[in-house]
Structures
1.
Amino acid sequence: MIKENKLGSTIMTARKKLGISQRELARRISVSNNTIARLESGERKRTNSLTLKKISYVLNIDYIEVLKQAGFTDEDIIWCNKK
């Protein structure tokens, strides 16, 4: 059974809509290209909230939705949103 990779799909769709490569997104948020590739492919299920916040900002997607898709709990989301 293959688990849906909603987070990866969301990131990839938004990135492609803006016409930027994985490498360019990685450069803009100061992470490795491998980090973006692993997030999009579903190999990396969870990453820190700051990286997700940067991705959300650059790709103009809802930060709270990205946190939910990454598996953060409601309590985690409340805490992350206070930062």
2.
Amino acid sequence: LDYFENWKEGAPLPLVVLLDLKLPKVHGLEVLRAIKKNPNFKKQPVVILTSSAEDRDINNAYELGANSYIVKPVDFDKFMEIASQIEIYWLAINQPPG
């Protein structure tokens, strides 16, 4: 949140934000709400990458503007495979808005 709240015009933005819902101090949906509420980041791609497969969390994430919702696998090798696929899609294939 500090990064987005203190962002200055012209400073670089991440190509994509990977966001967990289960954060230590604030729920990830609150972070998503804050990101998407700010007009500078309304189009910022946000991918939820979390262990929650609850319909409530999935629906809330999309209602708040998440671009994708991925449930983290427990198996580390599977997790790394998914992380690689996320990188390929969001950094190499996806065309962000200008």
